[in-house]
Design brief:
By secondary structure, the chain is mainly α. The chain contains 53 helices and no strands. It is globular and about 95 Å long.
Length: 874
Amino acid sequence: MVGFFLYGCGSKTKEEMLQEGIKLTEEGNVTGGVILFRNALEKDPNFVEARFHLAKGYIDLERYPQAERELQKVKLQDPSNTRIDVFLAKAYIETDRPDEALEQVETYLASHPPTAEALVIQGRAYLVKKDFPQSMEAFRSAKEIDPQTLDAYLGMASVYLAEGHIESALPVLETAAELHPSDKRALLLIARIVMARGQLDEGLEIWKKVLAIDSRDIDALYQVGLLTINSGDLDEGSKFAEDLIRIHPNRPEGFQLRGLILYEKQEWENAADAFQRSLSHGGNLQSHYFLGLCQYRQGRYEVALSEFNRALDIDPDFTPARMMLASTLLVQNRLDDAIFQGQTAVASDPRNAWAHNVLGTALLMKGRYEEGMASLELATQLDPGLATVHLKKGAVSLGMGDIQRAESAMLDAVQANPDALESRLSLALFYVRQGQSDKAIASLQEGLANNEQDAFIYYQLANLYFRQERFDDGAEALEQAKSAKPDFLAPYFSLGVFHLAKAEPEKAVEEYKGILKHAPDNFQALTLLANSQDQMGNRQEAIATFKKAVDVDPVRGTLVYAYNLIRRGENPKALRVVSEGLGKAPNAPLLLEMRGKIHAEQRDYPAAIADFRNLSQTSPDKGLPLLAQTLVASGQNDEAVALGLNLISSNPEAPFGYLLLSAIHNASDNSDKAYAVLDEGLPKVNDPRPLSMNKAGLLRGQGKNAQALEVYGNVLKDHEDFFPAVYGKASIHHQQGEYAEASRLYRQAVELNPNFVPALNDLAYLLTGQNQVKDGLDFAMRAFRLAPTDPAIMDTLGYALYRDGQSDRALGLLESAAQSLPDNPTVLYHLALVYHDLGRSGQALQTLESSLAKGDFPEKKQARELLNNLNGAQ
């Protein structure tokens, strides 16, 4: 609709555009009206009436800064036009400037008879200033002038609520709802009041009434879904979550609701992904809190801490987040920090048994016996069942200074309740923190009791041994953990990674098979086994294992198998595998995306377009960019551009349309238009970060690093913890050879997101290249643990091992990386270095020649020198 006006208004007069714009606005198409008003002003910038209606349109679209700017222009062009005073006052009140709003509305009332609209704005201004009597008087006066004015009723109710007079607010809101049955605003306030009283069933009915008025209302969809989940009907709740995501794909509520459902199902990884997507669209403290819980459940304590802290940044009095923060710190044996958080929680909520419990435990572990016992005793009084386990944590022995007896008591608590295992582990971690690793190991060894619980202690012993680079002892401890509790899977996974890092895929295979004996459907073990079998050259066994993974999880299994085939250059087979997967999981977004990409790679554009159109129905954020890119590649530029324009006109405040249209222009080699689209969207969208990041990426692609750095810097001024921008800056400094600054920024990105593999990998490579090999190796191992089958990660770890004098361990990793990335000259160069170091001159020569034949790469000069040296030695 809007696109039509863009092409059809060139021959119209400014007066015709004004009248058509007014008509569109009255019909509810405010965006279309605004476009026509702006077109009229392009013909005549002094057309005051068009500018006035443009300002009103901006107010209707809640774009108040733009409205104020246009109203000020009207005031300059036509000082006698007093109509603008009320609209200016409204713009001021919506931008939290009550004093200016009052001044403007009182100027209007001084020369005009009072109107309900002006008095409502006056009442709202006084309400913001907490002048409740004046506010109520203004709202009542507005109601007397026009008894049908809904805003007057809502204002009166807001004053009552601000004063805490809930019972007085309800009848006013009920009257408003009766007078305006098609307006949801009064019902929204009633619903919140009823929910605050704990009347959930009544609240559910009111939220349903809101949906009857507006089936797209975000709050109502979310609350009905939440109440449905609360009743235990997760499947029905899931419908509301998916409706929210479909209707409002750029809002956080649907993803948060999905996350809550997955959390209830104990699907921690999938729940975490949902909460992260919620936060990428805005989110709130609940998303941070539950994301923290998901990470805590998976043992990712640093990430959990970050999320709990972010929840507390939003609301410092949110006790659940503070207590989980304290509990996580306790698990990490960060006792001083745990004590501080416990004390803060107790000060905020003195009757919180959980707070006294955690505080008491931390104090006891710190050796502050009297204080710790007092807190635990109070916790017992507040909730006799809650503190029992913690009282078993060796409080008496710690108070007497008898560490050995304290450890024995802690072990008893562990045997009674596995959740209390952190008592002994925390003591060991305390020693580690003090630089006393030997004492930590001794304390753990003393806790061994020849039972299943030994498995957890052996597992932690292995981690300590690996820290000390006692690799054989670490591997032995993991074997003992397996013996103590054969169905404890973590040691198998750790040994698998250990053997892969040592280029012993055959031993890794045995570990993954060991997992599958106890958990035949463990998807991670199946995929790691398949990749390890492939690395050994056992192709048929690998294929059989990939197929088992597909049976366990048709979508993820198909993806892993297809990626393996693509890395081997077997795209037709990959296409067949993905098509078979879609037969088992019709319209699965990830599979549609992969099949479409394979079709596009093979230049089968009609098939790719069909897949991406289907993908766009369920995942527009994935499907539409791919569809547009393929349309451009197939020469259908006009259709691609129309797709982008339509998205922008339908939702001008969402970043997605601008990103898509910019990508279309960029794919058409029109970078000027790509930039222009992003610049147009930046002041309009509700979250400018995606547009800014995209702009920085375009600038980097054109070698305009200084401008890209400026864009990243502007993002970080408003969002200092936005790690993608930190990583972007680090990458530019790395590319420019500014290694100290790059290292600092990579480390900052890793602190913000400890599991961000690209930053870990790039930091490892940078440090290794700067002769900080030990640190580089540490970060490379961290990245490898998170992504053990990624060939780029294998390359970095292999190179770090080579630089550390461990070429024998590097060899298998680099051979695997080279097999997966046969056209990457840097990987081949690294492999040649290892061959040379191991005395395999012939293989080194052959690999160097292959590397140099691939074109330019950063290490080309060194590769050429090594090749010349080897040729000279023959």
